[in-house]
From TrEMBL:
Keywords: Dioxygenase, Flavoprotein, FMN, Monooxygenase, Oxidoreductase. GO terms for molecular function: dioxygenase activity; nitronate monooxygenase activity. InterPro entries: Aldolase_TIM (IPR013785), NMO (IPR004136). This is 2-nitropropane dioxygenase. Belongs to the nitronate monooxygenase family. NMO class I subfamily. The keyword Flavoprotein applies. The keyword Oxidoreductase applies.
Amino acid sequence: MVWKRDESHLPEQLRGLRLPMIGSPLFIISVPELVIAQCKAGIIGSFPALNAREAEGEPPLLEAWLKQITEELDRHNQENPDNPAAPFAVNQIVHRSNARLERDLEICTRWKVPVWITSLGARVEVNEAAHSCGGVVLHDVINNTFARKAIEKGADGLIAVAAGAGGHAGQQSPMALIREIRQWFSGPLALSGAIACGESLLAARAMGADFGYVGSPFIATHEANAQEDYKRMIVESGAEDIVYSSLFTGVHGNYLKKSVVRAGMDPDNLPSADASTMNFGDGSSKPKAWKEIWGSGQGIGEVTEIVHAADLVDRIDREYRAAGAKLAAEFIG
Ligand SMILES: Cc1cc2nc3c(=O)[nH]c(=O)nc-3n(C[C@H](O)[C@H](O)[C@H](O)COP(=O)(O)O)c2cc1C
């Protein structure tokens, strides 16, 4: 049997992936080494532009990263014409406190970044910058209202961030969120939240998402820029070890309880914070929130060892195909 995905509704940049999956942008953690490994493994790799942070007076590190990623993937494609790398994505935090946004847009436009992921506010000028260099914009949203706004402002596709996602997660069930968006939107749609195995990726596709948007499992890879303790904590934790709180950045997010305990707090009795404390001027609202209080989604019960990113993609690919074949058999004959 020939397996073929219907990709007729997707723009060119998002077609033909080995696996319908995006390695999501992770603050501090996503660095060129991880992005390159994800793309070579056949999924879209990504990083937040704010991760590329140069010292005062030095040339923009973002420029150096884009050069490295572009050249390395070009080289791979020349050497492996039958097995080309997937395109990469850059995440722009479109929050008013991100003082670097204009400069970063200019750099990304010049380097013709193929996929742009925007979060924390949809802005027309960001979409225009992406489109001016042939890029595709995916905007992340936590509900249907924000989804409509993002498309009205010119985003090409959506990332539905459901309950259980790592970082700034939503609160809605993925089933409700994806189906409400699919009632009116037929363009590119990714599902974010607790996808850590092929079975869950298949479920996302069955619901109507085009891609699984996978973050936390990549923290436990050799290529991730995370402390060994953090990687091990991901391996050793499950859904019950995650706490949902607004305390650390002003926006609700999911974090590893054990890291909260290590920082001297009680994860079961955290006060809440208000969103006005959010500040991305220097890259993060509170650097400590991500350096000491470690973010993670609920899906990490599926993560049992620290591996290379390519091995993680291989595992999810194997599971996805096996689960798909098993389910398809129910419908044959
Ligand atoms: C440690 C951490 C950092 C994150 N940083 C960002 C970020 O800088 N920008 C962004 O758009 N999303 C960020 N996210 C959210 C992810 O891109 C994605 O929505 C989420 O990880 C998917 O859920 P999962 O972790 O359960 O796979 C972060 C998530 C985590 C766990």
